[in-house]
Amino acid sequence: MRIQLKAVIALGTLGFVAACSSSPPEPTSPLAGAGGEAGGGAPATNAGSGGAPASSGGGSAGTLAETGGASGSMSGTSSGGGASGGGAAGASAAPTNFTCNEYLGLLTTNEWYSQGFESDGVDGTKWQLKYHHYGYVGTWADPNSPFWSDTGDSFTLTQGSSIQSPCAMSSAAPDRLVFAALDWEMLTEDAWVTALEAALATFKAKYPSLRWVELMTMIRCPGNQMCNPNANYGPGANMTASRQDCYVPPYEDSALAKVASLHPDFVSVGPKVEALACRMPIDGAHLSVESNQHAAQVIATYYAAHP
Q1: Where is pLDDT greater, at 187 or 38?
Q2: Residue 283, in any domain of the structure
Q3: If you placed Cys at 234, which of 8, 96, 195, 196 could pair as Cys (CB 3.0 to 4.6 Å)?
Q4: Structurally, how many domains does the chain consist of?
Q5: Is 104 part of a structural domain of the chain?
Q6: CB-count burial class (<10 Å; 0-12, 13-18, 19+) for 98
Q7: Domain for residue 245, yes or no?
Q8: 130 bridge partner residues
Q9: Quick one: CA dihedral 276, 42, 40, 151, positive or negative?
């Protein structure tokens, strides 16, 4: 199947999630109506252990090119649903033994975080999560975004959301932030770099206590091959679940690496994690329960080794 995705530059958004807690957050329901990042929704069924049934676009900056079958995995990405690529090129050794780690992100972040992350090997008392349904890069980069409020409904655009499973110590002043960078509208490396730099400035202002920031992409499709045959990145995609997918374009990976290289004493790139299989039926970038549980285990294993 050949897939063509429209290429248009749009303001992007980065999602970053904090993780610290003594009791894990409530799991996100996988039932119909849970919806994509924009709404919608369908029951999740794991499609088995096979790869994604669609071709991947290896687009250049500014374009998700039409292609008939890209490589099964991207450089730095492990196959088989594992994690790889931790650390950023040019980054100096990150500090360790953080008091409070916050995972900052959006709905898809909570979907795997709530599936056992804090009980899969990390010290749950040192992790917390802050997420908003629509927590894209641009919204977290905005210091005046209502999403920064610690009260409200995480599904409401004009409200904030509370910290999930707060750290036992320094919950209001985390010293490491893991940012789930997600956006389906930015289509060039430059757009991503600009948005990420703005987000970093906001993070420093919101949390002067930060010693380190780690940038992560969403959980990728198996082999980073497209799962959604109707995926169509570009303006409007952030609010349209049917246009979304778990495929991570190469310009996004290169942007994260570039930003990390510009801040070697403060920023690194987190692990690249893949889903076990495409969710069936497809529901944008949402994964099956099995893939979310697997992602929680893989990411917890990584951070248990990098406390």
Answers
A1: 187
A2: yes
A3: 8
A4: 1
A5: yes
A6: buried
A7: yes
A8: 104
A9: negative
* pLDDT (0 to 100) of residue 124: 94
Q: What are phi and psi of 125, to 5 degrees?
A: -75, -10
Cα separation of 178 and 130, whole Å?
10
Q: What is the mean pLDDT of residues 41-49?
A: 34
Mean pLDDT on 261-285: 95
More confident residue, 209 or 53: 209
Look up the pTM and report it. 0.74
- Whether residue 235 is predicted with pLDDT greater than 80 in this model: the reply is yes
> Is the per-residue pLDDT at 197 higher than 90?
yes
Of 83-97, 178-192, 273-287, which gets the smallest average pLDDT?
A: 83-97
Contact (Cβ atoms closer than 8 angstroms) between residue 192 and residue 252 = yes
Residue 276 domain flag: yes
Q: Of 127, 131, 118, whose CA–CA distance to 162 is shortest?
A: 131
CA–CA distance from 87 to each of 82, 93, 122, 255 (Å)?
A: 16, 9, 18, 14
Contact 30, 289 (CB under 8 A): yes
Report which of residues 10 and 141 the model is more confident about: 141
Domain with residue 236: its CATH number is 3.40.50
Distinct helix (H) and strand (E) counts, the chain? 5, 9
Give the C-alpha separation, 197 to 24, whole Å: 31
Q: Is 144 exposed, middle or buried (0-12, 13-18, 19+ CB in 10 A)?
A: exposed
Look up tokens 């917890």; give the residue. 300
- Host domain of residue 281: 45-305
